[in-house]
Amino acid sequence: MRQAMMISNPSSGREEAQRYVDQVRDVLASQGYEVILNETAGEGDATDFCRSACRDACDLVVSIGGDGTLHETINGMIDQDHRPRLGVVPLGTVNDFARALHIPLDPEQAIATLNSSRVHPVDLGRINEGLFANVAAAGSLAESLSAVSSEEKSKLGSLAYIKEGIKKLIHTPAYPLVIEHDGQVWEGEAPLFLAALTNSVGGFEKLVPGAEVDDGWIHCFVIKNIGVLNSLTLGTSLLFGSLMNHKDVVYFTARQVKVSSTESVSTNVDGEEGPPLPIHLSILPRYVEVVVPEEE
Ligand SMILES: Nc1ncnc2c1ncn2[C@@H]1O[C@H](COP(=O)(O)OP(=O)(O)OP(=O)(O)O)[C@@H](O)[C@H]1O
């Protein structure tokens, strides 16, 4: 019998996971899966559950929660030979991963998507000893976003919370950064470095218009003047032209990136606090297969 594991975070979003768990179970059982439910109680649980799903050769893992839960879930797949397919029921504030894969943001529609026969291979990124699904950021914006609590995020909504963060940072200091990427080096001062795997970052769905989830590239932005982010709008992402063409932005793609600084700089990875610099990023092409809607 095929095995499916639900990894559910009862604290995600507006604490709605409980409501949806039974619906997910029904959808999976109707497909003939034997279903196991694991609920997270705190940090690291989703990673442990997913690691055991890999070791037990489980066929499908469904992450029920926000981008944080998804981030922890995929981290259970690191260095595993057997990696289950991944289903996503987005319950967070931003849900970048679901946005990038056109998985409905409405939980009930996302649950119905679990019936789809279509799967999409998706690149993951490696950051030091961990994995990321969507974005790694280094600099003070990264720090201030990590400091926003789940409750505040739910209250403010994604755009508002990111814009609040940006407003506070207009006079933010630039950090001396050394960025080595595929044999080249960028050296200079910048308040923010962003590495994205998908086109959706912080809910801005067109931030990286050319990024495909399986293009094998890390899309990198050095933001030399944080003020450029002020013209971000949802949908168009930038009022005037695209971020990558902005005069205060350096954009490049790479398969390997090392970012270091002589100062202490913190990072934010998939919306959660990440390791401090230096960071070493690399791409893991088509590392996981994600269940996506039948039709886009
Ligand atoms: N039972 C629990 N109670 C409180 N926190 C939990 C629990 N289980 C996991 N966590 C923590 O929840 C965080 C992940 O939350 P997640 O991002 O999925 O939801 P969210 O914060 O509502 O979403 P978003 O970040 O998009 O607002 C992780 O830091 C994880 O350690």
From TrEMBL:
SUPFAM superfamilies cross-referenced by the UniProt entry: NAD kinase/diacylglycerol kinase-like (SSF111331)
Any one GO molecular function term: kinase activity
Keyword Transport among UniProt keywords: no
Protein origin, superkingdom: Bacteria
Pfam families named in the record: DAGK_cat (PF00781), YegS_C (PF19279)
Stored InterPro entries: ATP-NAD_kinase_N, Diacylglycerol/lipid_kinase, Diacylglycerol_kinase_cat_dom, Lipid_Phosphate_FormReg, NAD/diacylglycerol_kinase_sf, YegS/DAGK_C
UniProt keywords, alphabetically: ATP-binding, Kinase, Lipid biosynthesis, Lipid metabolism, Magnesium, Metal-binding, Nucleotide-binding, Phospholipid biosynthesis, Phospholipid metabolism, Transferase
Gene3D superfamilies referenced in this protein's UniProt entry, alphabetically: 2.60.200.40, Probable inorganic polyphosphate/atp-NAD kinase, domain 1
All copies of domain DAGKc, residue ranges: 1-130
Entry's transmembrane regions: none
Required cofactor names: Mg(2+)
Family assignment from sequence similarity: Belongs to the diacylglycerol/lipid kinase family.
Protein name, as recorded: YegS/Rv2252/BmrU family lipid kinase
Species of provenance: Paenibacillus lacisoli
Lineage: Bacteria, Bacillati, Bacillota, Bacilli, Bacillales
